[in-house]
Design goal:
Length: 361
């Protein structure tokens, strides 16, 4: 039986978990054996509890293995059809490095690796650029989710078989909509999905951005007669430290806030699509909002968010490295028009799976 190994930042991140589920559903439908690597000790087996009874799916907590057991595991994984990194901004200075350490080891052992639905973020450090170039040269399948990432890849290591396809989340949201998940009549609320900004800003700078954002949100709530702010960390492992600070700031500003932690992705999606307004600190929160036509302003901390808004011809974001967050700017951006996400985006997202199917077969 053919076997695929899936790597990624899974178990705590909304966008990455969405992409994992899209890939898993596809591979299970094709009756392909899948081993999912939990590389971040994110309790992934529990997050994938609905796949537990499926004999085709296995979860390995790679992070907990000793160095020797990791080596033996890599020796086992090298025989897979492909070790696939599924989704995310995987080539960056601050976060992902393309899984360089373990994909390099797999390559030396004779294994094959590739990437589907990935992007390039801030990438200026010499060693990270070298690692990215090394990985691109040896990847047997590389699918980028945005044109800018593809162009940057060609500058670093030019080859003709890079592929462009839209983010896999479009397929998830389309399937979600078709499953009769609709808006519910709830008390109106503003949703804030704050992204932990350490690595992009100093702690003092992030705190100032938080205060400015909350002051602006309070003005919108007063204007619209909205009494409740909901706070949702879209990365339960990374964003909660910042959200805890926001809770304290809300108390000092007399903002009534509800903090929703550790929700499964369907409930996170429900919170987004039912919100009256969404101030979005993460890419896939913004994609969900735009897909479901929720009035949203993206707080673009990274080029990937700007790439997204450009792709839908929208200016409904603030580049928080350069634009001031204040009430006037937030309201102005909420009034901006954006194009409805067309079926072409969904078709292009499905292309990721078609490409994977062609490689496997």
């Amino acid at each position: 039986m053919k076997k695929i190994v899936i790597w990624g930042y899974y178990g705590s991140n909304y966008g990455d978990d969405i992409m994992l589920r899209v890939i898993l559903d596809y591979l299970i439908e094709k009756k392909i054996s899948v081993e999912v690597i939990d590389g971040y000790n994110n309790n992934l087996e529990e997050r994938l509890v609905d796949f537990k009874s499926n004999s085709l799916v296995k979860v390995t907590n790679f992070r907990e293995l000793s160095k020797l057991k990791k080596l033996f595991k890599l020796w086992d994984l090298k025989s897979a059809k492909i070790n696939l990194w599924g989704g995310g901004t995987v080539f960056t200075d601050e976060d992902g490095d393309g899984n360089y350490k373990f994909f390099r080891a797999l390559s030396y052992l004779g294994g094959k690796f590739g990437y589907v639905g990935v992007g390039i973020g801030n990438l200026e450090k010499v060693d990270r650029i070298k690692h990215t170039r090394w990985l691109l040269k040896r990847s047997v399948l590389t699918v980028f989710r945005d044109d800018t990432s593809l162009k940057r890849a060609n500058i670093m290591y030019k080859q003709n078989d890079y592929i462009l396809a839209e983010d896999l989340s479009y397929k998830y949201f389309d399937d979600y909509r078709k499953s009769n998940q609709t808006k519910h009549k709830l008390e109106p609320y503003v949703l804030l999905t704050w992204r932990n900004l350490i690595g992009y800003f100093t702690e003092a700078e992030e705190l100032k951005l938080m205060k400015n954002t909350l002051d602006s949100i309070k003005g919108i709530m007063m204007d619209k007669g909205i009494k409740n702010l909901k706070l949702l960390p879209l990365d339960s492992k990374f964003d909660e430290a910042s959200c805890d600070k926001i809770i304290q700031l809300c108390k000092s500003l007399n903002i009534e806030v509800t903090y929703d932690r550790n929700l499964p992705i369907n409930k996170q999606t429900n919170l987004i699509l039912n919100s009256s307004y969404h101030i979005s600190g993460r890419l896939h929160g913004s994609i969900a909002s735009e897909f479901f036509n929720v009035p949203t302003v993206g707080l673009a901390y990274s080029p990937k968010m700007i790439y997204f808004y450009n792709s839908i011809n929208s200016k409904k974001f603030l580049d928080i490295k350069h634009d001031e967050i204040n009430y006037k700017n937030l309201v102005s951006k909420l009034k901006e028009d954006s194009e409805k996400i067309s079926s072409e985006f969904i078709q292009s997202a499905s292309k990721n799976l078609e490409i994977l199917d062609n490689y496997i077969c």
